[in-house]
Amino acid sequence: MNKMFAVATVLASLAAATSANAQSADAGAGAKIIAPLEISNVTDLYFGTIAPSTTVADQVVVLADGSRKCGPALTCLTADHTAAAFAVTGEADAFYTISLPKEINIVNEKGTEMQVTEFNGSKTGGQLLSGEDSFTVGGTLYVGVRQEAGKYTGSFTVAVEYQ
Description:
mainly beta; Immunoglobulin-like; elongated; signal
């Protein structure tokens, strides 16, 4: 019985000695919050007024620089085309990337569609010098043979993300 009492006393003494040697340290915690990255549309992408061919489908391209290329089977009647323009704001001097859609459809009042693809941007990303930047976006419109007349509209999403 004395041996068990002695072992228990030794174990209790070791446990007390171990906890007496315990050490601790404090660490700081923190975070830096930066300005949220925001994008706004300044100008819409517009392909202009177009007369379709009665025999051949063709395309109209508006480039990010605002220029337009009208396919030979089409007649582009006015110079009222525009590339889409976007403004970006956020943390000064931060870098960001731009994501463009692959394709969309635009639709007239009767539900007839035309496809817009090959979106192209004036840049793939940028730096927010003084917390601001901007860029433009163009695309390619596919016009069918005897494409139905009407005003075609639709929308597309452009995303920006901090690098």
